[in-house]
Structure formats: structure tokens, C-alpha cells
Design goal:
alpha+beta; Rossmann fold; Tumour Suppressor Smad4; 2 domains; six-stranded antiparallel beta sheet; 9 helices; 18 strands; globular; binds adenosine-5'-triphosphate; ATP-NAD_kinase_N; kinase activity; kinase; transferase
Length: 325
């Protein structure tokens, strides 16, 4: 057998039968990959298991669980250059969707077997590694209201019900956002800094498309003046995200940058990749190409460079001499 990997498996994630899920994963992967399987427990989380795997110098790390498990494991793999395989078995599967990885066990395993990898950006938020997004305000309140029991019973509906409940008590706050070249002050109900985001993360969808390998973060400010305005703004974000056009409402703003320092008055809860990490202030810094993930063959890899066609082009490698004309 030529390939090996550490498989980190959360036995309580999602609504499926974990024993059956693991049997399917093993049946699909083990003919080609020598798997070393570790289960997460209530005490030993996926980040600890991934950290130990990195220390052992494994060839690849494959993680199977919900968004919490995938994000936690990814934090230990950021910056290591160890390929990261994603087998999503959660409620929302935002992690896989944001990174355009299939979210069925079968297709996710095929993606890993194909062995194609690409680099994606990550970020640090107050020194915590971040793959998807940091949400201030509305999103953090919604996540806090959605418990594991509700998710088991209701699935994604649990988030929607919690969202509606939060909307009923919609709070706005003063926010100050410092970028590399400006300081912005406004009133908002939600501020979201996204490295990557699935379409379902509506509050992150200010710009037309979030690019996860451009070395930049996308910040969206949602500042409705009433509950009716909040519903209209959310609907507008849904529409513009699906049509790929930028937002056009006065109560929604967005900008891109390599880093953001954000403070609010009063302090607001912060959710980072699905987990509450504390309250504002936060500082978020992009880490270009921080994570190497297995991706499907049909995923278009956007080019990071285009030089061909330029007049009198000559490109020289710094090690060798001229390599392209
Ligand atoms: N063996 C276990 N027993 C109890 N809890 C566990 C165990 N393994 C992991 N956990 C807990 O599972 C949580 C992570 O769950 P995860 O997010 O992967 O699944 P989910 O909640 O079903 O999915 P989603 O986040 O997509 O809704 C962590 O809080 C972790 O402490």
C-alpha cells in the first residue's frame, strides 16, 4: 500500500449511524490508504488528535464529523503542509460547502482517493486559527441559541428557528473597523469577516462571491433599522449571493482587506467557525495559502497569476536562468 493517513472520526456528529458511517469510510478508503483511526471523545477533541498526528509526522490527515470537528482539526493542520481530507457528517456542513468539497461520504472519499490538492487561505482571529468566518452580533447569538439536542431533532431547522428568535430581539451596536488604511465607524446588527463561507452564511454575502485563495478577507456589515429592514436585508443578501451580484442596499456594506481590527460598544459575542470564542474586540489576519486540502477534480482552480500575452515578456527564475519567454 503506497498511501497512509490518520483518520479522526467524531462518533456523535450528525444524525446518521456512526458505526455504519465508519464502516463505509473504511470500505472505500482502505483498499488504497492505510488508515490509522482515532475517535474524538468529550474530553479529547479533534484539534488535540490532529496536533498529535502532526507531531507523529503523518502523510495526510482525514477528518470526519460536523463543522465543529472539521474546524477544530483544521486549526492544528494550518501551516503544516500536510494534506487535509474532509468527510462531512454534520448538521449544516458549512465547512465542506464553503470549500466546495462534496458533502456525501461516498463523494468525499472519492475526492480523497483522487489525491488532488490545492492551497486555500486561512486566518487568525485573536490568535485562534480560522478557516471560514468570524461573526459578531446576530450570528453569534443564533449559534449560542442552537443546542446539540435541538440539532439532533430538527437539523438545519434548529438554526433557522434560533435565527428567528434572535431577530425578535434584534440589537444594534456601535462598531469601529480598522483596516490597513482606514478606520470606519458605524452602527450595525451584524459584522462578519469571512475567509470562506457557504451560501447559507447569508450575513457574510456582501461582496459578490467570497474568494478563498486571494490572500484577502471579506467583511460584511449589516445595519438594518428595524425587524422588517432586517428581513428585507437578509432576503436581499440571499438573492444577490445566488445571482453573483454585489449588494445594493444602504443598510449593507462590504470591503476586502488583509486584516481587520474590530471593536464594538457594547462588547458583542464572537462566533468563530461555529464556536463562541468570547467577545469583541477582535483582530483578524489573513494567512495566504495556510491549508492544503483534497479537492475534487472538477473543482475549477482559479489561477493566481496571469502573465502570458504581455508584450516582450521574459520571466526568470531566481534559481535557474531564463525559464519562459
Ligand atoms: N465521543 C464524543 N462524545 C461526546 N461528545 C463528543 C464526542 N466527540 C466529540 N464530541 C463533541 O462534539 C462536538 C463537535 O461536534 P460536531 O460539530 O462535529 O458535530 P455536529 O454538532 O453534529 O455538527 P454541526 O456542527 O455541523 O452541527 C464538540 O463539542 C465535541 O466536544
Amino acid at each position: 500500500m503506497s498511501r497512509s493517513a490518520c483518520l479522526i472520526f467524531n462518533p456523535v456528529a450528525g444524525q446518521g449511524d456512526p458505526e455504519q458511517d465508519l464502516a463505509i469510510i473504511r470500505a472505500l478508503l482502505e483498499p488504497e490508504i492505510d488508515l490509522d483511526v482515532y475517535h474524538t471523545t468529550a474530553e479529547v477533541a479533534a484539534d488535540k488528535l490532529a496536533e498529535l498526528a502532526v507531531k507523529r509526522g503523518v502523510e495526510a490527515i482525514i477528518v470526519s464529523g460536523g463543522d465543529g470537528t472539521l474546524s477544530a482539526a483544521a486549526t492544528a493542520v494550518v501551516g503544516t503542509d500536510i494534506p487535509f481530507g474532509i468527510i462531512s457528517r454534520g448538521t449544516a456542513n458549512a465547512f465542506a460547502t464553503a470549500l466546495k468539497i462534496p458533502d456525501t461520504i461516498d463523494a468525499a472519499c472519492q475526492t480523497i482517493l483522487q489525491g488532488r490538492t490545492r492551497y486555500v487561505d486561512t486566518a487568525y482571529c485573536n490568535h485562534h486559527p480560522m478557516v471560514l468566518l468570524a461573526g459578531i452580533g446576530f450570528e453569534a447569538e443564533t449559534v449560542e441559541m442552537t443546542d446539540r439536542d435541538a440539532k439532533k431533532r430538527l437539523g438545519v431547522m434548529a438554526y433557522i428557528l434560533a435565527g428567528l428568535q434572535t431577530l425578535r430581539n434584534l440589537q444594534s451596536f456601535q462598531v469601529q473597523i480598522e483596516t490597513e488604511d482606514k478606520i470606519i465607524s458605524t452602527t450595525a446588527s451584524a459584522v462578519t469577516v469571512a475567509n470562506a463561507a457557504p451560501p447559507s452564511s447569508v450575513l457574510a454575502q456582501g461582496p459578490a462571491g467570497i474568494i478563498y485563495d486571494d490572500g484577502l478577507l471579506d467583511l460584511t456589515i449589516v445595519a438594518p433599522e428595524s425587524k422588517a429592514g432586517a428581513i428585507a436585508a437578509t432576503f436581499h443578501l440571499l438573492q444577490t449571493a445566488s445571482s453573483g451580484s454585489p449588494v445594493k442596499r444602504d443598510d449593507i456594506g462590504y470591503l476586502r482587506g488583509k486584516q481587520f481590527k474590530i471593536n464594538t460598544s457594547p462588547p458583542q459575542k464572537v462566533v468563530l467557525d461555529g464556536e463562541i470564542i468570547g467577545t469583541t474586540p477582535i483582530e483578524v489576519n489573513c494567512v495566504p495559502a495556510g491549508l492544503k486540502i483534497f479537492v475534487p477534480f472538477d473543482q475549477a482552480v482559479s489561477s493566481t497569476e496571469k502573465l502570458e500575452g504581455l508584450p516582450n515578456l521574459m520571466v526568470e527564475s531566481k534559481q535557474n536562468s531564463k525559464i519562459q519567454e
